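Predict structure. Chain length: 198.
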Amino acid sequence: MTHTPPGRPLRADAERSIRAILAAAERVLAATPGASMEQIAEAAGVTRTTVHRRFANRQALIDALAAEAAAKLAEAIEDGHPDTAPPLVALHRATANVLRVKAAWGFALGPVAARSERAARMHDEIARRCLELLGRIREQGVIAADADLEWVRRVYYALIGEVMHGTAAAPPADTEADALAARIVDTLLYGVGPRTTR
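Prediction complete.
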């Protein structure tokens, strides 16, 4: 949480400083989760005092980082146009976008940052948006009419998680996101049995 008076917008230079600190925090903490505020400041190219002026302590910085990543995730889903694009197109686009965000914000979307209450509220909203999109897909008859959409959502999240953290390794490159999204969506909606004419 920054020390900006309520209702007062940050100046452009302060905003840039915060963005640089958050970007550096993601890089540094992804490599070394126990990294200090001093190490983050050095990576951001600012003084330790600047970091402490923006964030009261290390946990406040991690909370802000988690909220920033959750906001990026929400943007990724909205960029898929879940309300207006054909539902399957929206699901594919949103999935590819989410994979890109998760690859770039691995620490901030991981378990250490998950304790942020603000980020948790944003993730609840993301889950709600996901359920709405799955509902649109169900209306098209692609998902069974009696399917439990909450369960479908959890399976969908699990497939994304397996892509990001599977035993085979590193997060996917940006160029792989579309192909992986197609595999996730195909597996979610059609399973792994023999294909018949759809």
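Summary: The domain at 1-56 is CATH 1.10.10 (Arc Repressor Mutant, subunit A).
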